[in-house]
TrEMBL record:
Belongs to the DNA mismatch repair MutL/HexB family. One of its GO terms (cellular component) is MutLalpha complex. This is HMG box domain-containing protein. The lineage of its organism: Eukaryota, Metazoa, Chordata, Craniata, Vertebrata. The keyword DNA damage applies. Keywords: DNA damage, DNA-binding, Nucleus. GO terms for molecular function: ATP binding; ATP hydrolysis activity; ATP-dependent DNA damage sensor activity; mismatched DNA binding. The keyword Nucleus applies. The chain holds residues 6 to 343 of 906 of the full protein. GO terms for biological process: mismatch repair.
Length: 338
């Protein structure tokens, strides 16, 4: 059974990025408005996420890392109106199988915080009083200590740096979609990146991408009924110099589906086609526009369960969404890309 647990957990928890994402999403689900993410040795020695969310009630702590325990959905129908990032109850338990995990938590009703040390199967092996304020801090030490090949794979300087960049990109995506969130990323005790709480998406874009980039972007909205599709976002201004809002990496094209940062090949392709068409010369063929596209569809028409990390989503009415995006782009720029 230990082998089975290790194998299935290692499919859910695949990287430092993945751990950070799961822990952050738990914090956001707990209503946190402030997140401190600390990494040591690129997260391989320590990943710590501290939030100011509602905490975990003492009576819930024994089950928090039990695989498939979740406090977020109670019935099959709840999946149809999912408003939380998590719902499978897999992350914490899976992390326990591939690292050393400790959780410090305090709810509004607790006088002091408690630190819990968890074992391989997610059970509490010890607990002691701690000194933190309201919220939860999860520490993940020695990631993949029992998966030496994977640990080795992530230990090269190149991989480490790539992974840190990916973590930062993920934080930027959440910073944009959640303006009210305060975020810091600390690596080996040095603040690598941070973002203060701001009022709206525009300020969040300025805080993350810089004022000069955002000066070339225009807020856009599109509402459609039947099927219900809402599009909101920031797009390069018509007629603006696109080169200032394009890059050779996809790291400034932000696509969200129901507030989840996602990778969506077809939508990305559509966006790229549209902007690439505006460059007559070949040098610009591989550009990605700086775009924030927030797609909101009924929760029942998206399946986020495609991959364990939920970064790929299945849209029930993909063609309708693509058409809506196309219509939106045409109305903004006044012509078709193909
Ligand atoms: P899921 O997010 O799918 O419910 P997880 O394994 O990620 O599953 O977390 C298990 C449970 O532990 C959550 O349902 C929640 O009740 C609790 N939990 C985990 N992290 C936090 C946190 N940062 N703040 C409050 N509760 C948390
Ligand atoms: Mg979760």
């Amino acid at each position: 059974p230990d082998t089975v647990r290790l194998l299935s957990s290692s499919q859910v928890i695949t990287s430092v990025l993945n751990v950070v994402k799961e822990l952050m999403e738990n914090s956001l689900d707990a209503g946190a408005t402030s997140l401190d993410i600390k990494l040591e040795n690129y997260g391989l020695d320590r990943i710590e996420v501290r939030d100011n969310g509602h905490g975990i009630k003492a009576e819930d702590t024994p089950v928090m890392a039990v695989t498939h325990y979740t406090s977020k959905i109670f019935s099959h129908e709840d999946l149809e109106q999912l408003e939380t990032y998590g719902f499978r109850g897999e992350a914490l338990g899976s992390i326990c199988a591939v690292a050393e995990v400790a959780v410090i938590t305090k709810t509004q009703d607790d006088d002091i915080s408690t630190q819990y040390t968890l074992n391989f199967t997610g059970q509490i092996v010890s607990q002691k009083p701690s000194h933190l304020g309201q919220g939860t801090t999860v520490s993940v030490l020695k990631l993949f200590k029992n998966l030496p090949v994977r640990r080795q794979y992530y230990s090269t300087t190149k991989k480490c740096k790539e992974e840190l960049k990916k973590v930062q990109d993920l934080l930027v995506a959440y910073a944009i979609i959640k303006p009210e969130l305060r975020l810091t990323l600390i690596h080996n005790k040095v603040v690598v990146w941070q973002k203060a709480k701001v009022a709206d998406h525009r300020s969040a874009l300025i805080a993350t991408l810089g004022a000069s980039t955002v000066a070339n972007l225009l807020p856009c909205h599109h509402r459609q009924e039947q099927p219900e599709i809402f599009l909101d976002g920031f797009f390069p201004k018509p007629g603006a110099d696109y080169s200032s809002t394009s890059s050779s990496n996809p790291d400034k094209t932000f696509i969200f589906v129901n507030n989840r940062p996602v990778h969506h090949k077809d939508i990305m392709k559509l966006l790229r086609q549209h902007y690439t068409a505006q460059y007559p010369d070949d040098s610009a063929r591989n550009r990605y526009p700086t775009v924030m596209l927030k797609i909101t569809v009924p929760a029942s028409s998206v399946d986020v369960n495609l991959t364990p990390d939920k970064t790929q989503v299945l849209l029930h009415d993909k063609e309708a969404v693509l058409t809506a995006v196309e219509v939106f782009l045409v109305s903004l720029y006044g012509y078709r890309s193909n």
